Amino acid sequence: MMLSWHLRGIRGDRAMPHQARWLEAEFGWHAERVTEAGLALGLADLVPIACRGSSHPALLDHLARLIGARPGQTVLDGGCGLGGPMAWLTREHGCSTVGVDLMPSAARGARRLFPSSTVVVASLTALPLIPADAPVANAFTPPGTLAGQLAAAGLTVLASARAPDVGSAPAAWREPILAVEREIAHCHGGDPRYQLEARERAAFGRLQLSGRIVPWLLLVERPCSS
Q1: In whole angstroms, what is the distance from residue 214 CA to residue 75 CA?
Q2: CB-side neighbour CA atoms (13 Å) of 45
Q3: Is 221 in a helix, a strand, or coil?
Q4: How many domains is the chain built from?
Q5: Amino acid 93: pLDDT
Q6: Does 60 fall in a domain?
Q7: Residue 226 forms part of a structural domain
Q8: Cα(121)–Cα(198) distance, integer angstroms
Q9: Domain range enclosing 8
Q10: What is the 3-state secondary structure (H, E, C) of 12-65?
Q11: pLDDT of res. 177
Q12: What pLDDT does 123 receive?
């Protein structure tokens, strides 16, 4: 399963030096602050704050249906971040999940939020089960290029559709996320890393609202060699 944003972007494991600063601020430093704030606030459910890219239970339900989530099914969460979706799959469907993320800070945070989870720091392109030239899940992809990248990597698209518009998340999901962001702003509002992350997040939101980036869900298969 892949979530591809159709816009020119970069892959974290190929970031240039000038891009590393905002990558670390958003996916490293901020992930640690979310972890600290969530634990300090004593939130009853930590899953919402750890679902940065899919922070809506209806979207997670949709993903679970597409992959046929079921008890005992092994799911690799590539680019797992703080591990919210994989923790949700384990809790709601009994899946056996493994998270992989390039950012050590995010992996540490996932282990703190969900101590029973399995999370490793690694590049997806270095894993033997994924073709080295495959586009990375949760990647930004220029329009019209993804199909060629998937074909070149030997992956077959089984299903492809724009991610459904699920509307606003329920209050049970919104409120802990807002509480954590308020706590981070209170404790770290003057930190340049907080300000950088906030600018990047706001810019991403504007691009989404303007329709310049569009999320697509793809179910892909790597045919077994005979």
Answers
A1: 25
A2: 16
A3: strand
A4: 1
A5: 96
A6: yes
A7: no
A8: 25
A9: 2-221
A10: HHHCCHHHHHHHHHHHHHHHHHHHHHHHHHCCCCCCHHHCCCCCCHHHHHHHHH
A11: 94
A12: 80
Alpha-carbon Rg for the chain, nearest whole angstrom, is 17
CA dist., res. 150 & res. 136, Å (int) = 10
Q: What is the pTM of this model?
A: 0.80
In eight-state DSSP terms, residue 99 is: E
Structure tokens at 134: 């495959």
Share of the chain above pLDDT 90, in %: 42
Looking at residue 205, what DSSP letter applies? H
Q: What pLDDT band is residue 91 in, cutting at 50, 70 and 90?
A: very high
Range with top average pLDDT, 4-8, 24-28, 109-113: 109-113
Q: Within a domain: residue 191?
A: yes
CATH of the domain at 144: 3.40.50
Average pLDDT over residues 172-199: 94
Tokens of 11: 């892959």
